[in-house]
């Protein structure tokens, strides 16, 4: 396991709980230590880790880090991975990353599959970039930490599907937060409006996240990803949509908003906290006269 942020640490803990042998690496010693205390071994770099494993899982911040770890000529996974072994990347990246890494791995008899995830271990949904069977025996490793494995058909499709999920999820969140701001501006109690909508067809992930902010559910809000992650994911979706020849106005709104968030004091805070900034951006000066 390479990358021990919130997702990577949870994955490592779940693998250890199911009696898998786990070797971990992260450039931050402070996040490596707790996983070692649970029973994992540690490696000095990605190359050393790869040489000790049949399958390598990576959960990294984005494309730059994934490419560096996967392909680094001196300390990367490919430099140490045994013949026939696999790298399964569970990060959120654009499909082109899968093409670049996959070509390099194919050329030397190593396996690469994009396997981004949604939700958290042990209730993960893994979006597998390939047809059923592409994981071979490594499917058992993922099945130990996931609720569902979805085979997306071809290399890069796992990454693409994850980005499309992000598009839907955060567009929904943003629309929900704006709706509750309207409710608040009308003098309605936003938390009560949220409860009502939750019983209607509009209620699910986006609404739930926005509603948690208005309910002052600090624990839930702080458990969400930082806004910088959403800004990165949204930009990747926009690039993918542009490459596909599609202009999404909903996506443009999401990208614009989270770019503003990334340039603000909310950048590294849980993304629902950016609702405070949303209120500043969306609020209009009071009208001098009311109109029907």
UniProtKB/TrEMBL annotation:
Keywords carried by this UniProt record: NAD, Oxidoreductase
MF-aspect GO terms: NAD binding; NADP binding; oxidoreductase activity
Keyword Plastid found: no
Pfam families from the UniProt entry: NAD_binding_11, NAD_binding_2
Entries under InterPro entries matching the protein: 6-PGluconate_DH-like_C_sf, 6PGD_dom2, 6PGDH_NADP-bd, HIBADH-like_NADP-bd, HIBADH-related, NAD(P)-bd_dom_sf
Source organism superkingdom: Bacteria
Every 3-hydroxyisobutyrate dehydrogenase-like NAD-binding domain range: 156-269
Entry annotation: catalytic residues: 162
The keyword Oxidoreductase appears for this protein: yes
Residues of the 6-phosphogluconate dehydrogenase NADP-binding domain: 1-153
Regions annotated as coiled coil: none
Family from the record: Belongs to the HIBADH-related family.
UniProt-recorded name of the protein: Beta-hydroxyacid dehydrogenase, 3-hydroxyisobutyrate dehydrogenase
Source species of the chain: Mycolicibacterium rhodesiae (strain NBB3)
């Amino acid at each position: 396991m390479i990358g021990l942020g919130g997702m990577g640490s949870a994955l490592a803990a779940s693998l250890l709980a199911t009696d898998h042998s786990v070797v971990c690496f992260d450039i931050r010693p402070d996040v490596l230590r707790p996983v070692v205390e649970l029973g994992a071994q540690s490696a000095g770099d990605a190359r050393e880790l790869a040489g000790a494993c049949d399958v390598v899982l990576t959960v990294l911040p984005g494309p730059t880090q994934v490419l560096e770890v996967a392909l680094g000529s001196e300390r990367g996974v490919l430099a140490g991975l045994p013949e026939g072994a696999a790298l399964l990347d569970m990060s959120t990246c654009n499909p082109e990353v899968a093409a670049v890494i996959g070509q390099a791995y194919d050329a030397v008899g190593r396996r690469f599959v994009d396997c981004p995830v949604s939700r958290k271990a042990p209730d993960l949904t893994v979006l597998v970039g390939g047809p059923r069977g592409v994981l071979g025996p490594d499917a058992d490793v993922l099945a130990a930490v996931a609720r569902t494995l979805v085979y997306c058909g071809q290399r890069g499709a796992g990454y693409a599907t994850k980005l499309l999920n992000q598009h839907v999820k955060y567009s929904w969140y943003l629309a929900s937060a704006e709706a509750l701001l309207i409710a608040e501006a009308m003098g309605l109690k936003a938390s009560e409006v949220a409860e009502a909508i939750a019983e209607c067809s509009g209620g699910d992930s986006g609404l739930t996240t926005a509603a948690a902010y208005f309910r002052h559910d600090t624990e839930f809000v702080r458990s969400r990803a930082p806004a910088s992650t959403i800004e990165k994911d949204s930009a990747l979706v926009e690039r993918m949509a542009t490459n596909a020849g599609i202009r999404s106005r909903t996506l443009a709104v999401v990208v614009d908003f989270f770019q503003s968030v990334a340039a603000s004091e909310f950048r590294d805070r849980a993304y629902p906290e950016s609702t405070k900034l949303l209120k500043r951006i969306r609020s209009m000066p009071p009208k001098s006269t009311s109109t029907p």
